[in-house]
Amino acid sequence: MTHQDLLREREKELACIYSICLLAANAPEPEAAAEGIARALCAAMQHEAKASCSVEFRNADSGATVSARRGGALPPGATGCATMEADLPEEESLGWRGSVRVSYTDPSLAFLPQERTLLDSILVIAASVLRTSSLIARLRSASEDLSAKNIALREILSMIEDEKRRMALAFREKLAVEILPLAERSRDQGLSPERRSAYQDLLVEELGRNLAALGPGPELCPSLSPREREIAVQVRNGRTSKEIAELLGIAEATVERHRHNIRRKLRVGDRSVNLASLLGTEASLQESPRQE
After folding, report:
1. d(CA 288, CA 250)
2. Residue 115 in 3-state DSSP?
3. What number of H helices and E strands is found in the chain?
4. 20, 12, 19: which is closest to 124 by C-alpha?
């Protein structure tokens, strides 16, 4: 073989490796990888027209198998045909096993030593391609599982929101139909004090029964004393310190001291923050706000 022939064969080998590397860069599916390897190896052989290449890969974990073949078939009863075969490097292929086999259909032909080296190099790249394919498949499976869980979570959250709306509507209807009429009757000045007191007792009992039916809820700010909670309710409903003092029968200065303690326990140091507006928020007595 002349130097020109050797150079031409070397160029074919480099073209083969370049082709396989381009294939690997696109992270192909195992079937496409097998097809590309068989095609590139056949084209790289010295006697391309009489070369035959078969690729067999199988995944030990999933049981998947892929195969590809390029070139002519061996004639029936042919013996003595040159053949070279190499196995996948198992430690690098992440569950894939198999081999690549290259043969000449003419018994008079033989492989060059560098063609055997080329085959071994291609198997290393093939193992990397199959490893990448396995990792992508696992990632895709994990992504699908996560997507399914997200869909289920959204459905559960939607059901919870629907249930909250249903309960809120039911409670509002109960307040309008049962509780509010009792409160209005308890304020009716046309009734005797005894009857108004009876309506007030009935109102308190009915409210207690409804609260018990709702079950335990979040604990109101545990740092507030019963008197401070009572004053907080008055403040939330817009009563001034003077009005609260008259209603509770205590000094106005005492009310101011309680208001100061409420601010301190709720960690509201900024005097510009309106306490009535703050207490009007749903979570104001359930979780202390941060210091501003």
Report:
1. 27
2. helix
3. 9, 4
4. 20
Break the chain into its structural domains and give their ranges: 3-147, 221-292
Note whether 286 and 220 are within 8 A (CB). yes
How far is Cα 122 from Cα 132, in angstroms, rounded to an integer?
Answer: 15
3-class SS at 222? Answer: coil
Domain 3-147 has CATH 3.30.450: yes
Tell me if 103 sits within 8 A of 83, measured CB to CB. yes
> What's the Cα-to-Cα distance from 255 to each of 221, 261, 264, rounded to whole Å?
19, 10, 14
Please report the pLDDT score of residue 292 as a whole number: 38
Which stretches in the chain have pLDDT values below 70? 1, 74-79, 92, 216-222, 280-292
Write down the pLDDT at residue 133: 84
Distance between CA 52 and CA 150 in Å, rounded?
50
Indicate the pTM of the whole model.
0.52
Contact 130, 96 (CB under 8 A): yes
Cβ atoms of residues 24 and 129 within 8 Å: yes
User: Which class does domain 221-292 fall in?
Assistant: mainly alpha
Instruction: Report whether 53 contacts 83 (CB < 8 A).
Output: no
